[in-house]
C-alpha cells in the first residue's frame, strides 16, 4: 500500500481492528498521528515514489516487575511490555542492505553480505541490526534488504529497554517481510539476545527481549534457556499507578559494572563445578557459604544469596498477581528492592554522584507511602527506579520527584498486551 493510500485508509478507520488490541480505544487518535509521522518521515528521507508498498511495525518497551538479575543465571523473572513503543515505516529494497534511520540519529547501514562481528561496532545500533539479520539467516530464515524510518517513545536511559525493543522490531520486520512469519515471539527474543550478546557485546539475559516480543505480563522460567517456559497473566493494579523514574545519572559507561554481576555469580557457580547458579543446589551453597566467601570474597557470596531468594520471589510475585493479591505482590516488591540494595549491590557506583539512583529510590519510597513500593529497575547502578504509587498520591509524587530530580523524570506506564507486531 503506497503512502497516500495508507494514510487515507488510516484516517478512514480501516486499520482500527488491528490497532485497537495494541493501543486501546482511547489512544487510537493519538496513534493515527504517530503513524502518519513515521510514514511522512519515511517518504521525506527515502523518496519511495508513488507506488512503493509501505508497512508499519511496532515493538514495545518493557518494565521489569520481578527477578532482578536472575535471567542470566537461568532463574525466573517477571516483566511486562508497556504502552511506550517504537514505530517503524518500512519498505523492501533491491539492494542487500538494511538501512534504518531513527529520528534524531545518524542512519544505520548494514551490508547483508558482511556477517562478521566487528569490535568497532560494539555498543551500536549497527551491531544489533547485523546480529539479528545474521542469526535469523542461520536459523533458516530469508533475509533481504529494506529501508526503515523509526520514531520511538521508549526513551534511551528510561529503563524501559530501548535496545530490546529495537532488536524485536528489526527481527519482526525481517520475519514478516522475508520469512513468512515463521518465527514466534520466543524465537525473536532469543535472536535479539544473541545480537546483544555476540555483536553488541553486552552479556544480557533474555527477560527484556521476551517481554518486548511477547506482550502483557509474562513470568518466565529460564531453566532451559533454549526453550524458556512462559506464562502470561492479566493484572489489576487496584488503584495504583506504575511509575518509572529516570535518575538522571549517566549509565552509558557502566557495561563493566553490569558484566561484573554476571561474572561474579558465574564464579560462585563454577566454585561448585557448575556454569550458572540455577544448577547449584541452594542448600549446599548455604552449607558452604563460608568457603565461598573465603575463596571469592564477600560480594559474590551476597550476590548469590540475592539470586536464590530473588528467583523464588519472582515466582511468588506471579502467583500473587494470578490470585489477585496485590498487597502480597507489593510486599514482595519491597523485599526485592531491599535485596538489590544490600545483597546484589546494584543501586550505586563508585564515582561522583554515584549514589543518585539510591537517593531516587529512597525518596520515591518515602513519597509512595507505606502502602506503596519502590525499587531499582533493571540493570541498576544509575538508570532508573520503579514505584507503585497509590492514585491519590500520584500528582504529589510526580511533582515532588520532578522538583528534586528534574522535570520529565517520571514516566507513568501501563501494560500493553501485544508484543512486537506488524500493524499495517
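^ Assign residues to that structure.
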Amino acid at each position: 500500500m503506497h503512502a497516500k493510500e495508507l494514510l487515507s485508509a488510516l484516517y478512514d478507520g480501516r486499520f482500527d481492528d488491528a490497532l485497537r488490541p495494541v493501543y486501546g480505544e482511547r489512544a487510537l487518535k493519538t496513534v493515527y498521528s504517530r503513524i502518519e509521522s513515521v510514514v511522512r518521515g519515511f517518504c521525506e528521507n527515502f523518496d519511495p515514489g508513488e507506488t512503493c508498498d509501505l508497512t508499519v511495525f511496532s515493538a514495545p518497551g518493557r518494565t521489569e516487575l520481578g527477578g532482578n538479575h536472575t535471567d542470566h543465571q537461568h532463574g525466573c523473572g517477571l516483566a511486562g511490555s508497556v504502552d511506550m513503543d517504537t514505530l517503524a515505516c518500512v519498505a523492501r529494497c533491491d539492494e542487500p542492505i538494511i538501512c534504518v534511520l531513527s529520528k534524531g540519529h545518524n542512519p544505520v547501514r548494514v551490508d547483508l553480505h558482511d556477517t562478521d562481528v566487528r569490535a568497532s561496532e560494539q555498543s551500536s545500533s549497527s551491531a544489533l541490526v547485523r546480529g539479528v539479520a545474521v542469526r535469523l539467516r542461520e536459523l533458516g530464515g530469508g533475509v533481504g534488504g529494506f529501508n526503515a524510518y523509526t520514531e520511538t517513545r521508549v526513551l534511551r536511559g528510561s529503563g524501559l529497554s530501548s535496545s530490546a525493543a529495537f532488536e524485536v522490531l528489526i527481527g519482526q520486520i525481517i520475519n514478516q517481510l522475508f520469512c513468512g512469519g515463521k518465527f514466534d515471539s520466543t524465537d525473536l527474543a532469543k535472536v535479539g539476545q544473541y545480537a546483544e550478546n555476540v555483536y553488541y557485546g553486552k552479556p544480557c539475559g533474555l527477560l527484556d527481549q521476551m517481554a518486548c516480543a511477547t506482550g502483557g505480563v509474562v513470568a518466565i522460567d529460564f531453566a532451559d534457556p533454549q526453550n524458556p517456559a512462559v506464562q502470561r497473566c492479566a493484572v489489576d493494579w487496584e488503584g495504583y499507578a506504575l511509575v518509572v523514574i529516570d535518575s538522571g545519572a549517566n549509565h552509558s559507561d557502566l557495561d563493566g559494572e553490569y558484566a561484573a554481576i554476571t561474572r561474579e555469580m558465574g564464579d560462585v557457580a563454577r566454585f561448585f563445578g557448575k556454569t550458572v547458579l540455577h544448577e547449584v543446589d541452594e542448600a549446599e551453597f548455604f552449607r558452604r557459604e563460608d568457603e565461598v566467601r573465603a575463596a571469592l570474597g564477600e560480594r559474590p557470596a551476597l550476590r548469590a544469596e540475592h539470586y536464590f531468594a530473588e528467583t523464588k520471589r519472582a515466582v511468588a510475585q506471579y502467583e500473587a498477581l494470578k490470585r489477585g493479591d496485590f498487597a502480597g505482590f507489593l510486599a514482595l516488591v519491597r523485599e526485592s528492592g531491599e535485596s538489590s540494595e544490600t545483597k546484589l549491590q546494584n543501586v550505586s557506583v563508585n564515582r561522583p554522584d554515584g549514589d543518585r539512583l539510591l537517593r531516587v529510590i529512597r525518596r520515591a519510597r518515602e513519597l509512595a507511602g507505606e502502602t506503596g513500593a519502590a525499587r531499582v529497575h533493571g540493570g541498576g547502578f544509575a538508570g532508573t527506579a520503579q514505584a507503585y504509587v497509590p492514585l491519590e498520591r500520584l500528582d504529589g509524587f510526580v511533582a515532588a520527584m520532578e522538583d528534586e530530580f528534574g522535570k520529565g523524570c517520571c514516566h507513568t506506564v501501563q501494560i500493553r498486551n501485544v508484543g512486537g507486531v506488524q500493524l499495517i
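The chain has two domains: 3-233, 240-413.
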